[in-house]
Amino acid sequence: MRHKKLVYILLLLFIISIPGTGGCLPNKKSSQPVNKKITLYFADQQAMYLLPETRTVSVSDQASKEEIVKKALEELIKGPQKEGHYPTIPEQTEILEVKKEKDILYLDFSEELQTRHPGGSAGEILTIMSIVNTTAPLAGVEKVQILITGEKQETLAGHIDISEPIKQDTAIIKK
Fold this sequence. Notes:
Elements: H1 2-17, E1 33-43, E2 50-60, H2 65-78, E3 95-101, E4 104-109, H3 112-115, H4 121-139, E5 143-148, E6 151-152, E7 166-167
Parallel strand pairs: 4-5
Antiparallel strand pairs: 1-2, 3-4, 5-6, 5-7
Helix pairs in contact: 2-4
Protein name: Sporulation and spore germination
Organism: Thermosyntropha lipolytica DSM 11003
Domain GerMN: 69-157
């Protein structure tokens, strides 16, 4: 009888040690890079409209919406690749945090977004709306709150209220 118990215990230990039978932690699927098409929005020459520019970026196949948004913002900061498209964000700007809470996307930027902004009401609108129109669809939200070093600001360059979340506006996109 004792011999039988020993055999059962050894058999049980053997079965538990086989991967996939509950004895070992399941193998986590390793993330693989995938290409994702994103649409960025840059200013036109007259600083009246936003122009779409599609790019393909490499992200993990397990990337969260926030990670995809951050990648899109990095591309937006790099500036346009097409002729006739103009940057909307100062190139020294850094992305400090991207966070989605309920139906609002919070984007926290370094102070350079404000201190290095070229100014003017048209430039300010284009910067804000290029950020919102680029990121809102990627995050699946209706509104975006722009923060500077973790804080809400009244304006970016003295003209447009950014103290509250901003809705996407496709009317500013040139068709």
